[in-house]
Write a structure and sequence with these properties.
Largest sheet of chain B: 5 strands, parallel
Structural class of chain A: alpha+beta
Strand order of the largest sheet of chain B: 2-1-3-4-5
Radius of gyration of chain A: 61 Å
Shape of chain B: globular
Strand content of chain A: 15-25%
CATH topology of the largest domain in chain A: Heat Shock Protein 90
Strand content of chain B: 15-25%
Number of domains of chain A: 3
Radius of gyration of chain B: 14 Å
CATH class of chain B: Alpha Beta
Oligomer: heterodimer
Order of helices and strands of chain B: EHEHEHEHEH
Number of strands of chain B: 5
Number of strands of chain A: 11
Number of domains of chain B: 1
Helix content of chain B: 40-55%
Order of helices and strands of chain A: HHEEEEHHHEHEEHEEHHEEH
Number of helices of chain A: 10
CATH architecture of chain B: 3-Layer(aba) Sandwich
Distance between the termini of chain A: 65 Å
CATH topology of chain B: Rossmann fold
Largest interface: A-B, 46 and 35 residues
Mean pLDDT of chain B: 82
Low-confidence stretches of chain A: 445-450, 489-500
CATH superfamily of chain B: Response regulator
């Protein structure tokens, strides 16, 4: 069964109407009864009182003896007593007032109730006993004026009740509209909230406590939602940004790795070609020196030499090109971002046996470096660290701290220390001494080119930073890079280098 | 006559350098590895070693260090085709440029020479390292 869904004001008004349609007729009949009763009582009271007074008048003195007197009294009843019919009856002899209605023929001898008899006349019969007279005073009072008054009162009451009903309905409509307006506003806001719009503030000023409290609660809920929503949005945005940064960095790293590969390849080819060019150039030149100026093969040999020189130039150009691509672009950067982004990448590469931890100071000044190169060097150190722990469980810690004071190493403060620590195999002092040399490697052939740490060293030097190693066999290795802190003034003077 | 020892794993390079320097009036011997070079230095008096950098087993930089230690009077020219030219200081930042010649200089080479070179360059370098006015 479908349920009726009326708006609040229609609902309230309908109820008010229904309730009054039941109550008002009952009220009407109840009050009508009371009105009718009181009017009838008044009428009967008057009729009886008047008839008794008139009867007393007959009894006192000699009124019954005089026809004239009897007629006068009966006339008085008509003219001043409100009766329509007056008769004195004594032993078959009856005297009637001439003023009475001639239509009323038969007089009843007993009092009847108001409205009975069907003739609209109320009869009062009073016995008069005086000396030798035994008479009866018969008075008939007209019920119609009383009936009319009752009717008028009832009509007025109907109007009153109708007026009351109208006022009640009007009040119901006004009240329910006033009530439903804040509810509608609450509803609009809650609808907005449920459709995802948390910006509409709830401003419901109502004198009704329940509504007010509901509004306050809803507003609190909205605030909470706005907060949650903002936090969620911020989180999503943060994630998007870091994802974008990560992709960017990954792209840059891939690009750099490609360059490195190209560079290594170019370097290798250059090495081979240059080696080949040595005998070509030297033997050709000496052959030319041995030939007399007019000798026929001279021209050909000179072309060989020219070609060899061109080959040398080509190799040189290729190397210059790849070297330029690998140069650092220094800017003011936040090392924490570099660490964060590198960790993103590294956590994917690292085997699950290795636990990665960070110890990073809350606030750190900027340093002058190339973010991509810095990430590259950190990646190199991390890769070294996890290779040192290969096949075993281990812990890799990346740390960033601001060091204000000089330590036993005698470094000039202040500086920022970036360190990567592993719990790997460790190195002996002889190895540590040579670790940054190009082509130095402790790995077996095919595992590494031996350029990793020399590249790290080169990058560190290009930042004007320095690097130190602590290592103990069987305990682990810690690489520390010390970045000089960029003076605030320098940062202000040269804002163009700021990496956003 | 001054004695020169050429160390290179490429026979063509060894032979051509020897050929040029022989003609310039030097006594030139050749070996193909750093190990052989050290043995040769111990056997015969040598004024100058011309050594390649990238070689199997012991590389040129290590060889230079060893020679500087064992034979401090011997002059050294490092040659390499690794494409390091005009670089006067150690710069491995140039990732694609292998910086071994700079390393060689750091290790104690008196002069570095980029491969390929011409006869004039070779002879001038040798003269420069050995001091002008040789026999």
């Amino acid at each position: 069964m479908a349920r009726l869904r009326a708006t609040f004001w229609i609902y309230v008004t309908a109820w008010v109407v229904v309730v009054h349609l039941v109550l008002l007729p009952a009220l009407y009949f109840g009050m009508g009864y009371v009105i009718r009763e009181s009017h009838e009582d008044l009428f009967i009271e008057h009729a009886r009182t008047f008839s008794r007074v008139l009867a007393d008048e007959f009894e006192v003195g000699v009124a019954l003896d005089s026809q004239k007197r009897i007629e006068d009294l009966l006339d008085f009843a008509i003219t001043h007593g409100g009766a329509r019919y007056a008769e004195l009856y004594e032993a078959g002899h009856s005297v009637r007032s001439l003023y009475g209605s001639s239509d009323i023929k038969s007089a009843r001898s007993t009092d009847l109730k108001f409205g009975e008899g069907g003739d609209g006349i109320y009869f009062v019969v009073r016995p008069i006993a005086h000396a030798r007279h035994h008479a009866e005073l018969r008075l008939g009072f007209d019920e119609e004026p009383t009936q009319e008054r009752i009717q008028l009162a009832l009509t007025r009451m109907i109007w009153l009740l109708a007026g009351y009903l109208a006022v009640a309905i009007a009040i119901a409509i006004i009240l329910s509209l006033r009530l439903s307006r804040p509810i509608q506003r609450l509803q609009a806001v809650s609808r907005a909230i449920s459709s995802g719009d948390y910006t509409r503030a709830l401003n419901v000023n109502t004198g009704i406590r329940e509504l007010h409290e509901l509004a306050v609660d809803l507003e609190a809920m909205r605030h909470e939602l706005v907060g949650v929503n903002d936090r969620l949005e911020a989180k999503i945005k943060e994630k998007e940004i870091s994802e974008v940064r990560r992709e960017e960095l990954q792209k840059q790293l891939r690009h750099r790795q490609r360059l490195e590969t190209v560079g290594t390849l170019a370097s290798g080819i250059a090495h081979e070609i240059n080696n080949v060019l040595v005998p070509i150039m030297l033997f050709t030149e000496t052959a030319l020196q041995d030939l007399p100026p007019s000798a026929a093969p001279r021209a050909n040999l000179e072309r060989v030499l020219a070609a060899a020189r061109r080959a040398k130039d080509i190799v040189r150009k290729i190397l210059t090109f790849s070297r330029e691509l690998g140069e650092a672009k220094l800017a003011l950067i936040d090392l924490r971002e570099v660490v964060g982004e590198t960790l993103h990448l590294f956590s994917v590469l690292a085997p699950p046996t290795i636990e990665i931890r960070t110890e990073i100071d809350e606030s750190l000044p900027f340093v002058k470096a190339d973010a991509t190169l810095a990430a590259h060097l950190l990646m190199n150190l991390c890769t070294n660290a996890y290779q040192a722990m290969e096949g075993a469980k281990g812990m890799l810690t990346i740390g960033l701290r601001y060091r204000e004071h000089a330590d036993e190493a005698g470094m000039t403060p202040p500086r920022i220390e970036l360190w990567v620590s592993d719990t790997g195999r460790g190195m002996d002092s002889a190895t540590v001494e040579r670790i940054f040399e190009p082509f130095f490697t402790t790995r077996s052939v095919g595992q590494g080119a031996g350029l990793g740490l020399s590249v790290v060293h080169g990058i560190v030097e290009s930042f004007g930073a320095s690097i130190a190693v602590d290592s103990k066999i069987g305990v682990g290795t810690t690489f520390r890079i010390f970045f000089p802190v960029v003076a605030r003034l320098e940062a202000i003077v040269d804002p163009t280098t700021l990496v956003v | 006559m001054q004695n020169i020892l050429v160390v290179d794993d490429e026979p063509d390079v060894r032979d051509s350098v020897k050929y040029v320097l022989d003609r310039a009036g030097y006594s030139v011997r050749t070996v193909e590895s750093a190990m052989d070079a050290l043995a040769e230095l111990a056997r015969n008096p040598t004024d100058l070693v011309i050594t390649d950098i990238i070689m199997p087993q012991i590389n040129g930089v290590e060889a230079i260090e060893s020679i500087r230690k064992a034979f401090p009077s011997v002059r050294i020219i490092a040659i390499s085709g690794g494409g390091n030219f005009g670089v006067t200081e150690y710069q491995p930042t140039a990732i694609t440029t292998t910086a071994y010649l700079a390393s060689a200089e750091k290790a104690g080479a008196h002069l570095v020479l980029t491969k390929p070179f011409e006869t004039v360059e070779l002879i001038r370098s040798v003269e420069q390292v050995l001091g002008v006015g040789h026999a």
